[in-house]
Design brief:
- By secondary structure, the protein is of the alpha/beta class.
- It has one domain (48-177): Rossmann fold (3-Layer(aba) Sandwich), CATH 3.40.50.2300.
- Helices cover 37% and strands 20% of the residues.
- The protein has seven helices and seven strands, in the order αββαβαβαβαβαβα.
- It has helices at residues 2-8, 47-52, 63-74, 90-97, 113-122, 140-144, 161-177, and strands at residues 15-19, 25-29, 54-59, 79-84, 101-105, 131-135, 154-156.
- The strands form two sheets. A five-stranded parallel beta sheet has the order 4-3-5-6-7, sandwiched between helices. Strands 1-2 form a two-stranded antiparallel ribbon.
- Strand 6 (131-135), helix 6 (140-144) and strand 7 (154-156) form a beta-alpha-beta unit.
- The protein is globular.
């Protein structure tokens, strides 16, 4: 399952281990060997480090994908991530969590990502929150061309974590400049 998720997100697993003694623990290192994104050992986070972390809300109906993205982003020690797998609850989750950035799938049942983005943009308390769409509806070439969906940048699925982190950092820098 972990390798399948890594392949689904376009990442190559360099280390994969399952321990069956504790229900099911998946440990995976998805960063390239020469990556600028360093992972921190579990339990190495201090309370002051938590205060400095950027808050990321990931909205996707695929629980495995959101959980894997959460784990990998949090292992960089730069982000605090909240998963939301029900698009109808995404706006309220954003109001409660107050994210610095939202990663939003487009194709979801009941409420699609475009509707969620519109709700967030209409909310005076959230309208300045950057949104990055994650979608399989476009190609990587279209994503790199700088096209936008409803005025928001997007990344083509399958994504890889270094590409995702670069997109996050670029959009957080734009927000900070405003």
């Amino acid at each position: 399952m972990g390798c399948h998720l890594a392949n689904k997100l376009g990442m190559s697993a360099t280390r994969y281990m399952i321990k069956k003694s504790m229900k099911k623990v998946i440990e995976a290192d998805f960063f390239p060997r020469a990556s600028e994104f360093e992972l921190s050992p579990p339990g190495s986070i201090t309370s002051s480090a938590v205060d400095e972390k950027r808050r990321i809300l990931v909205v996707d109906n695929d629980r495995d994908s959101t959980h894997l993205v959460k784990i990998l982003l949090e292992r960089t020690s730069r982000y605090l991530v909240l998963e939301e797998n029900d698009a109808t609850k995404a706006h309220q989750s954003a109001r409660n969590f107050r994210p610095d950035l939202i990663l939003l799938d487009i194709v979801m049942p009941e409420t699609d990502g475009g509707e969620v983005a519109a709700q967030i943009q209409a909310d005076p308390e959230l309208q300045a929150t950057p949104i990055i769409f994650l979608t399989a509806l476009v190609t990587k070439a279209e994503a790199k061309a700088g096209l936008r969906i409803q005025g928001h940048p997007f990344l083509a699925k399958p994504i890889n974590i270094p590409e995702l982190i670069n997109g996050i950092e670029e959009n957080l820098a734009v927000r900070a400049a405003l």
